[in-house]
Queue: 4 jobs
Job 1
Amino acid sequence: MAIQIKYDGGVYEINGLLNAQNGESLRNHIEVIMKQSKGLVLSLNKVLDIDSNAVKIISDLHRKASLCDTLFYIIGRENQRVKELFSALNYNDILL
């Protein structure tokens, strides 16, 4: 299943299943945005399911943003599956 990325009011909202396969597509999309912007907000609240590969990709993007002095906020604590997986992989400190 493909993911949908919707831009609404300054927030890029991810809808669908986020996994290793479509995570690379997300990486490419976010990297382009980071080159054009000084900051972005990514919402994972509407992600139906996520795997550890996708969490790693998002973590890598967060690290890259900080190295480039780009603000990168990841919203997703309202999504129990996202919250649990970020916590299990010790990435809960980047999740808002």
Note: The beta strands are 4-8, 11-18, 39-43, 47-50, 71-75.
Job 2
Amino acid sequence: MLYFLYENYPYGNGEAFVEYEMRDFAANQKEDLTIYVLRKSDSCTKKFVPENAKIVFIENKSFRILFSSFLKLFHKSSLKEILSVLKNHYPEGIFRCLYRIYRYITVAESFIDQYKKNCDNNTSNTFVSYWLNECAFALTQLKRKYPNIKIASRGHGFDVFEERCYLPFRKEILSGLDRIFLINIESKLYFEKIYGSWLDTSKIEISHLGVNLPEKIPQKDKADIFRIVTCSSVITLKRLDLLIDALSGIKNKKIEWVHFGGGPLLDDIKKYAKEKMAQSSVKYSFKGQVSLEEIQIFYASTPIHLFVNCSDTEGTPVSIMEAMSYGIPTIARNVGGINELVDNTCGRLLPKEENPELIKKAIEEFFQLTLQEYMKICENARLKIECEFNAAKTYTEYIKKILSL
């Protein structure tokens, strides 16, 4: 039996690209699976789920679970984590970090409780977490009770690099997993450097994410309005402010900027765009949170000339893959695993530094290209995805690796 653990999938707006691997699983595997969901989103949106999948919600806030978790704060491993928080002064602050330790424990307790209720008594079960966070921790705690099960986890961005946030029980999680699937080479090198002295790095594998190749790609004419698209949550690290600064400095060119995605800073970013681009010829629109299908329809029906990513940190963004699969070149800063996706043959890879002027110049370079030069870059963008990030290949290989554990 195969079990997947997600934070919200198939509900809500997060983990949108899990749908690719679920569709691949449904198309190629007949084995039953159970999808454990940490919490159900308030959104009524429900993504694709294979017919042979059962959904079980993990989160349990009963007094019994909460009290049991509180007692486990006094176990040796928990006290070690607490002392680490008190000693290291993490940026999130002591109380937030202490709560995170408690949350990891409550999720593990809730998951084990739910698994016992639905257990099929098959000791050869395989469990896979989508994130190296509390879900992965829950798997390691389950394995203590059922040593013969196999457990694995993906790792993406925030859950890979310790510099981004406090990650409790790190050594316990990484040591306890049977396999770790990281989405880019940078993550693997990081693990080998930081954890190589105690972690068996032979169990780390690169497993790229991927997207389905669209059948229809709209024709583009460089003489038309130059259309730029971004797609991300509207949060600080996505740095939409850098793009706004860059666009506000471009003169005498008809530009339309379309952004897909919502978030807590959406109103602030709208206000900033209005202030900075009040005197420019740039037209812009914020589409808010929309489904993956709506974005794909837009890409298939609208000539788009550039996709831009200005993030401070990233994993290997599926949003870039999606755009490139439609033959859309990408401008992005060289952070995370973006350099495995973007180079000067299929877009422009910029330095990590926060420099709106570099973004502006990169956009203006595309104005100067001949149609033939531009179309070659578009072809290369599509080819990059077809060869290296094609969901038909990447997810099939990933599922095979899971089933072989």
Note: The two ends are 12 Å apart (CA to CA).
Job 3
Amino acid sequence: MKSMKPKILLAVLILLTATGQLLFAQTKGVVVDKVSRQPISYVSIYAKTGDKVLGTVTNDKGEFSIDFSFQTLFFSHISYEKTEITKSDLRDSIYLIPTTTLLTEVVVSSRQPKWIKSVLTKIVEQKNKNYQATEKVFSYKYETYTLNDSNGYAFRSNGNLLIPQLKKNAQFKIDAQKNIIKYKDKTAGTDFSNLRRMLYDDFLLNLDNNFIKDNNFSKNSSFSDKNKNIVQLNFSSKKYTDYEGYLVLDTLNKVILEVGRSTGTDFNIKTQTSGMLRNLIASRVGFNYNTWVTKSITKYSKVGQSYYMSDCKYKFYMKTSTKNKKVNSSYFTSMESQLSFDNKTQNSTKEFKIIPKPYYLVVFYTKQMKEAEESLNKVPVSFEKF
């Protein structure tokens, strides 16, 4: 009997080791577009566990790895239908159904059709006449979801939003009447960050002749519409390899009806941050941007005699790292937001607050910036469980 004890002990150790491996085994797979069969990058994947939300994001090849326990996984991306899959139904490949116009490959040609530049130039010339010709108040609905390394967060707001006349340095204003936060406890505050980006980074606000000069354009032959005057153009930056998108144009009325844009790390870092400040932070604390991508889809509708933004979806994904003598870590944040408008306004019960412009890395805030930030953060909120 004595000779059996070591064998029994060894068997127990093997069983415990195998069990431990099963408990901590990672679930791996890839998320794929059901139509094009192409992998989908930066899809938010999360599970609800009690009051907490745990999650991850697919990489640039659509691959994911789950290292937390779950019964149901949620897959979310602004260009696809939200999907939930139970543990028993999970497979190596997850297929998502697209909800937006798909980009075909941009064909860069030195012989770009002359009509494209002509139509775009006319749109630029007439944009102040065709877009936001007058200040107007709309009712709005804003939803945003944030997933990071440690938890999940959701914020929903509706009320009235003042869209200013289309001109330089115009300010948007908001009457946020109903605001709901979903978080594990009541320590979280409001999050209007993506709303600010969608409004002040709106394509039409910044559209000028430099955009026409700095990009290559091609007509998407696979796009079709009942109105033959409506076409889709794909564009890609001549300067940045990670900036591309599409425009849906009404060539007869010389207006843009929809814009899709995708920007990558190189473009975002160089256009949204200060090189001097980046170098200072990198040298002092070892902070770096590893990945920074955004995707947006904006639609415009005619109200009266002018066009206004009617719907916008926005995706923000950032992965950063800090590496120095004391810290060696990485951190990700994935945000998905939607903003929609209705021509019927709600009863305004409060004064409109200024929506401050989005700021990334800045040396200091002015007094006016601070006051606008503080005022927007003080809107009344209620809390719900995620």
Note: Confidence is low (pLDDT under 50) at residues 12-24, 106-110.
Job 4
Amino acid sequence: VKNVSAPIVIVRIGENSFVALSPVCAHLGCIVRKDQSYFRCPCHGSTYALDGAVVRGPAEHSLTVYQTEYTNGTLRIYL
């Protein structure tokens, strides 16, 4: 078991399907904010899809995404 002190955002994308990602913008490290259907960086306007993919720069890389597993009502996030 690891001790982790970094924020993780969990997005439910289906009844039994989740995405876990870091809210740290890949551009300069600001914390992105969730809007209805995307994440936006308040510092320079980078926009990310709910799966972490870059929709609009200046960020050139996706948000960090962590593998998830949902079984019997339990969500596991692999760091």
Note: The chain has a mean pLDDT of 92.
